Amino acid sequence: MTLSARNRPFRIALLSLALLSLVGAAPPPANADEALSLYADATVIDGTGAPPRAHQDILVRGQRIVAVAPHGTIAQAEGAKRIDLSGRFVMPGLIDTHVHLATPPDDARARAILRRNLYGGVTAVRDMADDVRPVAELGRAALAGEIAAPDIYYTALMAGPPFFQDPRVLAVTLGVTPGKAPWMQAIDDRTDLRTAVTLARGTSATAIKIYADLPPRLVKAITAEAHRQNIPVWAHSAVFPTRPADVIAAGADTVSHVCYLAYQVEPVMLAAYEDRTPVNEALLAPEGDDPVIAGLYRAMLKRGTILDATGSLFVRYDKARQQHPEKRRLRCSGAATTRLTRQAWKAGVPISTGTDFVRGYRSDWPDVHEELFFLARDVGMPPLAVIRSATLVGAQAAGQAAEMGSIEPGKLANFLVLAADPAADIGNIRTIETVVKRGRAYPRGDYRPTTKAEMGDGDDD
């Protein structure tokens, strides 16, 4: 019996996916660390937005939280290693929902970024389109504890054929015809979407990213097929020429870049992603909430769509342009980006903390701290709301809320030990004493700063 030419690619992709699933389902090693640790007498900020709880104990067995209860009341704690946290504050690990670790691939740089992230409190990241070959290996090494790094959840990208003339694509699909790699596929009306999504899943990607240069009908069709195959869709909030309203209506689980939502007010949508014409901000309401944007936020609330705002990128870029006015404008000003994010927060839209930039080697802290500061200081969100965005909402955006994002029994032991209260001042996020990721402690004092040899010189926006 022979495979038909029509079905052969699909069946091969399905077999590859099945083999990968078997590998991924391998049981943990028999010698997995199941030691008990009791983090005693801390003030716990659990990530849900609830008020801090003083004098709490957290019992950890191996990689997971077993119990959280008032100090001295956990019966199972007998024999546990005790870590006294009196006077300390504990909150969930941070999640950066928008990073790029391998465009182009550079192993030393990626490892340096990941090290800085972990020791600065980031216990998970969403990689939003890269060469997944090195990213998958970094993710494996992070899970195994072989490198100091957050857990990595990465995407397989889909875009229209014009996008694959971008030089960045050549760097992340080396050895494969651009648009043909399973992790970076060119999509048009001739594409068998069932096969395309299956190939994407075969890369072990967490989600499909819908990136650019696709009409509304294909954005909708990709999303529907991805969801049929039980894989989330993370999309740009405008896919050019697809308007934000159509991206949201298609059912994307998360949308990135609050700035792009403003293209909904344009009378004529940009025909292609490659057209970098900025938003005409004069079309937004001169003050107060913009009614067109309000309609988008109502639709997002109805569908449960998460906004990966990346606001600090635009604010910091505006500041850089003040010193270097020759730099080209981004699609939105920092002021418009702040205003759009504030309207989203007031409307109740869940906002995660993504960055989409990398600061140079001289920085000692993760880039996502800047997004927390943006939400608190520019947008005006209370610290507890910012913490929820950076933890529980981030876990929801990554599709990992059952495993992380809040401090509660059954979830991974991913949390930060701080010397000062981040619920009083979000700046206290930088009083980290220890990061615990999957039950393993990483003292801040052990952090080895990034170097020019690892990172190169300058920032990457």
From TrEMBL:
Q: Which domain of life is it from?
A: Bacteria
Database matches in PANTHER family: ALPHA-D-RIBOSE 1-METHYLPHOSPHONATE 5-TRIPHOSPHATE DIPHOSPHATASE
Q: Which GO terms describe its molecular function?
A: hydrolase activity, acting on carbon-nitrogen (but not peptide) bonds
Instruction: State the coiled-coil residue ranges.
Output: none
- In this protein, which residues make up the domain named Amidohydrolase-related? 89-440
Instruction: Give the protein's recorded name.
Output: Imidazolonepropionase
Indicate the secretion signal residues.
Answer: 1-32
Tell me the InterPro entries matching this sequence.
Amidohydro-rel, Metal-dep_hydrolase_composite, Metal_Hydrolase, Metallo-dep_Hydrolase
Keywords noted in UniProt: Signal
Alphabetical list of Pfam families matching this protein = Amidohydro_1
